[in-house]
Structure formats: C-alpha cells, structure tokens
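During the reporting period the student researcher (J.K.) took over the structure-prediction task from the postdoctoral fellow and processed the backlog of single-chain submissions. One of the processed entries is reproduced below for the supervisory committee.
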Amino acid sequence: MSNSTVTNVSSSTVTINDQIVKKWEDARTNAAAIKTIANASGNKFQFSFASTTDSIHVYLGVDANEILSVTVIPTNDDTIINTQCLGIHSISGSKETLSSFVPGTGNENAISWGVANTRINNWIDSVKRDAYIDASTASSSAPLVLAFYVDKMDFDFGDTHFGYLGLIETTIDGVTTYAADLTIYSEAEEAKYLEDLTVLVPPFKGGRVSDQANFGLYNRINP
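J.K. obtained the following structure tokens:
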C-alpha cells in the first residue's frame, strides 16, 4: 500500500459542518476549481460501524485545506434539522489503485475485480476525470455529483470497508461519457467483497433512494 492517508468513519457521532459540503456545492459548476480540488486529493476513505445501520448518504465536501472530504449520515437521520453524522474526514494523500485479489463468492451484489478496478482507475486518470468534470459542471441533466446513496446491503457492522471514487465509462455511437461512482470494498472475516449498490445525486429521480426530500443536508444548504 502507498503512503496515502486512509481516513476512518466510525460509528461515533459528530457534528455536521455544513460549510464543508456547501463549499463543494458552490464549486459544482466551476470546472477549474473542481479539477484543482480533485487533483490535490486522494480517492478513498475507510469506514466501519460498531453497530448495524441502515443505508447511508455520503456527501462530498471540501475541507479547510482544499481537499476532498466525505460526510457520512445514516439515510434515516438525514433530515433538514439533523446536525449529527457518523463522521467527516478528508480524502488526502495519493490516489491508489485496487490491489489484486479474488473476490468472495455468494454475494449477489458483488461486482468483479476487473469492473471495480477499471472504474477506480478511470477516476485516477486525470484525462478521464477532467472530461467528467468538464461535462458535468456544464450539465443540468447530469450535474457533478454531490452525494451518494449507499444501500445497507453494501456493508456489515464490525467489518472494515473502503469507499473508492470511480467513474463509469459508457460509449454510445462513438460518444464517451462518464458518471461518478463509489465502489465499496469490504474486508469481511471470511472473504473480500467488491460491491456497488450506490446511487449518485443529483439528479434527484424520486423514491426513497433519490428523492430530494430525503437529502436533508442538501436542502439545508440550498434553502
């Protein structure tokens, strides 16, 4: 493993810093600013839960050092008046590829190592990352990601998990586009898994997973 800083999101409750998320929100249409932040940041964070939790919202933000951060909030707690989260941590250090291993079997939500590795490397590739930033900062229909919904089936309490930023690459009729992605790497006792039950917002498409009303922190910083 490289010398990158792996930040931990524990089950301890901390106070949400709205300004960290607001700083990312305010920069989401400024391609140059987002590129500078992404270039200076790492690409993964570590989290675990001491007790079971429901699905989570992972908000991107910018800390005082102009580094990417994540704010992790249980979905059911993400209301407009809620001021507590599971953790806020900077994604600092160098960007890391996914180490080679054979994922465990029997997990219906698992993705292959090859798929996960490609998506993670797409984010590390500055040309592809910049292409995503250029397109999404100028788009109203597919804007730059603010947060991810992560299904509870992507993690278990007591296990160590890593969240890797990635890009899903799609080519249709010779036109290549990218969508932000978050791959969850789980180190369970019996096996290692790669899962991707995540949904990015915006756009808000309705339903519990991506209804704007269910993202209280987003609504609070956008009154």
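The committee noted the following: The chain has one domain: 8-217.
J.K. will present the remaining backlog at the next meeting.
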